[in-house]
Amino acid sequence: MGRSGSGKSTLVNLIGFLDTKFKGTYYFEDKLVEQYTDDDLSKIRNENVGFVFQNFGLIEKMTVGQNVELPLLYAGVSHQEKTRLVLESLEKVGLADFVNQSVKLLSGGQRQRVAIARAIVKSPKFIIADEPTGALDSKTSLEIMQLFTELNQLSGVTIILVTHDANLMSYCTREIKVADGEVIM
Ligand SMILES: Nc1ncnc2c1ncn2[C@@H]1O[C@H](COP(=O)(O)OP(=O)(O)OP(=O)(O)O)[C@@H](O)[C@H]1O
């Protein structure tokens, strides 16, 4: 948590290997991130991190299933396995019946569930969720937080959440405050 402009997105983009220009040290699995090549980091990101953003980041002209399948496109997974993984992810977010629907017809909360299904389809070690409830009403926001809690408890995936909303803190196990580009506690 932190005020607007304090550096929250910058920090989680570093943690998620989206941004690789930084001062300081970041170890991932006992190795300094600066020692990996860009190709290594793309692979590490692809295999370990799922991303969820405020504005969902779905491709409108695709179906729900096609959106969830995107991270698997270059994963060398058979068609049958892809179908199984997509359905399994959609089941976890309660949208298995929507697999063939266009995303255009979905509500904001449903869209974020699709984005979460896409984020978990490759069983990442952690999910970066940058203001995932920023575009949702308060009831839907709590439903999304409930879903994150279930995923954390059932699949053991860590969720790194950026939020302005102090009401969401009760779902979190650790609070990290950021101010003026620094972690302050
Ligand atoms: N540790 C840092 N060192 C230098 N510059 C930083 C640091 N952290 C953030 N910045 C700069 O501060 C600005 C705001 O950062 P950022 O967008 O990450 O903030 P934010 O907390 O996510 O804001 P918002 O809540 O409005 O999205 C950016 O221009 C970023 O480059």
Automatic annotation (TrEMBL):
Residues 1-184 form the ABC transporter domain. The keyword Hydrolase does not apply. Keywords: ATP-binding, Nucleotide-binding, Transport. InterPro entries: AAA+_ATPase, ABC_transporter-like_ATP-bd, ABC_transporter-like_CS, ABC_transpr_LolD-like, MacB-like_ATP-bd, P-loop_NTPase. The keyword Nucleotidyltransferase does not apply. Gene3D superfamilies: P-loop containing nucleotide triphosphate hydrolases. PROSITE patterns: ABC_TRANSPORTER_1, ABC_TRANSPORTER_2. One of its GO terms (cellular component) is plasma membrane. GO terms for molecular function: ATP binding; ATP hydrolysis activity; transmembrane transporter activity. This is Peptide ABC transporter ATP-binding protein. It comes from Pseudolactococcus plantarum.
